[in-house]
Amino acid sequence: MLGVFGLKIGLIGVGTIGGFLVKRIQEDSSLELCFVLDIDPEKVKDFSEDIVINSISEMGAKKPDLVIEAASQQAIGQYAEHVLSTTNFLVLSVGAFADKGLEEKVKGLCKSNGTKLFAPSGAIAAIDLLKAMQSELEEVEIVSRKNPKGWGREDSEKTIIFEGTAREACKAYPKNINISATVSLNGIGFDKTTVKLVSDPDCGGNRHTLNVKHAFGNFVLDVKAQPTKNPKTSSTAAYSAFDLVKKIQNGINIF
After folding, report:
1. Is residue 255 in a domain?
2. Domain range for residue 174?
3. Which CATH number belongs to the domain containing residue 68 in this structure?
């Protein structure tokens, strides 16, 4: 039985981060996992039949307070309308909003249905400062370095594999680039944020450097984290997602 601030949660995507969230939710007596949905039947075969749904149309009967997307950019486009018509949506694949049409559609759904969209800061920090300085920002650059496996490559030496705007990066590397999207959404936008992606065999973890120039000076943030079992995903992204779940549950608005 849920506590006073109990939260019923539905989960779309049971991969690396989704699996982490399942464990954390099931360990917390104030949270209830009311459904899981994944396009791969193998990923949900160990769940009890009463929480596995095969289509988002079955979601309504579960009455979730919050649905978490931990699947892909495509999943947001596919499920956002159905989810936001009745409940709140926490999304991890924020690179999907490099599509201007989808971003505007989701904003409209939230406004017309009185529901909310949440996104964790993921594997980057200082998002609160970036957002606070939004009107004074002049230049924002994000440099992401990963082992070649994290990019799906086999480089034997350090290689710059991409330089361009965040919008271009999100389309070119949809499974790797949520940090650039998070920075863009909270900063100067997808078209003004510049991105450099580096494949580095000597990079011991996933490293992200944020370089910001604003009207009163500048700041540099350097974050390094070990990848999860999936080399494309930083371990901090999973913790950030669950932390946001608890903040939503407790009504804390410092995201």
Report:
1. no
2. 127-230
3. 3.40.50.720
Tell me, yes or no, whether 116 and 136 share the same domain.
no
Here the CATH number for the domain that contains residue 155 is 3.30.360.10
Domain membership of residue 31 (yes or no) is yes
CA 145 – CA 208 distance, rounded (Å): 6
Q: What is the pTM of this model?
A: 0.87
Per DSSP, the residues of 55-69 read SGGGGGGG--SEEEE
Torsion of CA 71, 180, 226, 36, to 10 degrees: -10
Q: Considering 208, 227, 232, 240, which one is annotated as catalytic?
A: 208
Helices (H) and strands (E) in the chain, counts: 7, 10
| Residue 82 annotated among the catalytic residues of the structure | no
Tell me whether residue 123 is annotated as binding.
yes
pLDDT in tens, 114-160: 999 999 988 787 888 899 999 999 999 999 999 999 899 999 999 99
Report the alpha-carbon distance of residue 50 to residue 28 in Å, rounded: 19
The residue type found at 80 is A
